[in-house]
C-alpha cells in the first residue's frame, strides 16, 4: 500500500472563512433593508433635514457599510489563507498542481488574469482534493455558479459605486439604488456559494486525513521532529 502524506490542517482557516462569509450575508441583508427604506422616501425629500427619517436611514446605512467593508477585508485575508493552504495540500496528497501556492494567491490580484486563473486553480483543488479512489468526482455545478456569482458581484459592485458617486440629488440617488441592491444580492449569492465550496473542499481534506491515518495503523510512531512543519510548509 502506498502511503500518502497527510494534508496540512486547514480546519481553522475554513471555519473563519465560512464565518466571515456568513457575516457578509448578514450585513448585506441589513444594507438591502436600509436601501429599501431609503427608496420609500419621496423624490423631493430634503436631504439637508438634520433630524428626519431619511437622515436616520442614512446613518444606519453608513454604519452597516462600514462594518461590511471591515468584514470584506477580513474575509479576503482569511479566504486567501484558506485558498493557499488548500492548494498547497495538493502536493501533500500526491498531486502535481500547475502552480505554486503563492501564485494561487497572486492570481487574484493580476488584472485580466484574475477573471479566469483563480477559477482554474479552484478547479484543481476541487477535482484533485475531492477525487475518489475510483477517479470519479462530484458535480462541479456549485463551483461554476460560485465563479459566476463572484464575477457578477465584482462588476455590478464596481458599476454601482461609480453611479452612486455621481448621484448628487435625491432623484439620482433613488435611481442608483436598484443597481446597488442588485450588487448586494449578487454578493449574498457569492458568499453563500463560497460557504458551500469551502465546506466541500474541507470535507474532502478531512477524508484524505482519515485515509492517511488508516494507512498508518500499525506503523511505528513518528518522532517529534518528523511532526514539525518544514520551513517550506509553514506560513501564516
Automatic annotation (TrEMBL):
Q: Which domain of life is it from?
A: Bacteria
The answer, when asked if Signal is one of the entry's keywords, is no
Transmembrane parts of this sequence: 20-38, 58-83, 145-164, 176-201
Keyword tags: Membrane, Transmembrane, Transmembrane helix
Q: Which Pfam families does this entry report, sorted A to Z?
A: DUF4328
Q: Does the keyword Manganese apply?
A: no
Q: Pinpoint the DUF4328 domain residues.
A: 60-200
> Could you tell me what this protein is called?
DUF4328 domain-containing protein
Amino acid at each position: 500500500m502506498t502511503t500518502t502524506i497527510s494534508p496540512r490542517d486547514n480546519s481553522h482557516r475554513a471555519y473563519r472563512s465560512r464565518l466571515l462569509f456568513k457575516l457578509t450575508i448578514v450585513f448585506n441583508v441589513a444594507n438591502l433593508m436600509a436601501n429599501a427604506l431609503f427608496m420609500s422616501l419621496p423624490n423631493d425629500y430634503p436631504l439637508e433635514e438634520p433630524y428626519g427619517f431619511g437622515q436616520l436611514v442614512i446613518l444606519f446605512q453608513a454604519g452597516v457599510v462600514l462594518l461590511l467593508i471591515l468584514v470584506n477585508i477580513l474575509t479576503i485575508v482569511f479566504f486567501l489563507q484558506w485558498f493557499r493552504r488548500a492548494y498547497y495540500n495538493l502536493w501533500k496528497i500526491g498531486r502535481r498542481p500547475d502552480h505554486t501556492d503563492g501564485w494561487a494567491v497572486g492570481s487574484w490580484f493580476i488584472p485580466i488574469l484574475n477573471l479566469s486563473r483563480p477559477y482554474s486553480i479552484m478547479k484543481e483543488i476541487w477535482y484533485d482534493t475531492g477525487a475518489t479512489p475510483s477517479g470519479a468526482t462530484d458535480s462541479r455545478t456549485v463551483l461554476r455558479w460560485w465563479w459566476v456569482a463572484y464575477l457578477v458581484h465584482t462588476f455590478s459592485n464596481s458599476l454601482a459605486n461609480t453611479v452612486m458617486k455621481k448621484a448628487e440629488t435625491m432623484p439620482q440617488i433613488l435611481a442608483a439604488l436598484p443597481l446597488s441592491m442588485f450588487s448586494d444580492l449578487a454578493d449574498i449569492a457569492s458568499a453563500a456559494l463560497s460557504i458551500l465550496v469551502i465546506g466541500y473542499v474541507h470535507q474532502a481534506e478531512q477524508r484524505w486525513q482519515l485515509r492517511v491515518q488508516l494507512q498508518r495503523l500499525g506503523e511505528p510512531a513518528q518522532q517529534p521532529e518528523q511532526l514539525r512543519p518544514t520551513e517550506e510548509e509553514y506560513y501564516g
